[in-house]
Amino acid sequence: MKAFFTLVLFTSVSINSYAKDVIVEIYKKKFIPSEITINAGDTVIWKNIEKRQYHSVWFKALVNEEPDYFFPGENYQYTFEKTGKFDYICGPHPKMTGVVNVIKP
């Protein structure tokens, strides 16, 4: 019985220690979902699934210059190493906003 609990505990710790990818889709000039909560070390991938519109993901508090645009079928990704609340916008469409909440794993 003791060995069983040790195995379960070890498995749970191992599973949670892996970073994961989280997808945010961009469609009809919206980030879907617009707010997410992830663990530090996770990567967010924004996928542009629009038919014709380009976008950007701009964390103004982190970088002064707007990043390059990405077009339909392309994506942008960022790995979050630090905890905190990170607001972002789409440079060409500033009414498009989103939030990434990063917590300790």
TrEMBL record:
Intracellular or extracellular location(s): Periplasm
* Superkingdom: Bacteria
Q: Which residues form the Blue (type 1) copper domain?
A: 28-102
Q: What is its main location?
A: periplasm
Protein name in UniProt: Blue (type 1) copper domain-containing protein
Q: Does the keyword Transport apply?
A: yes
Q: Which InterPro entries match?
A: Amicyanin/Pseudoazurin, BlueCu_1, Cupredoxin, ET_Amicyanin
Cofactors:
Cu cation
Q: Which UniProt keywords apply?
A: Copper, Electron transport, Metal-binding, Periplasm, Transport
Q: Carries keyword Electron transport?
A: yes
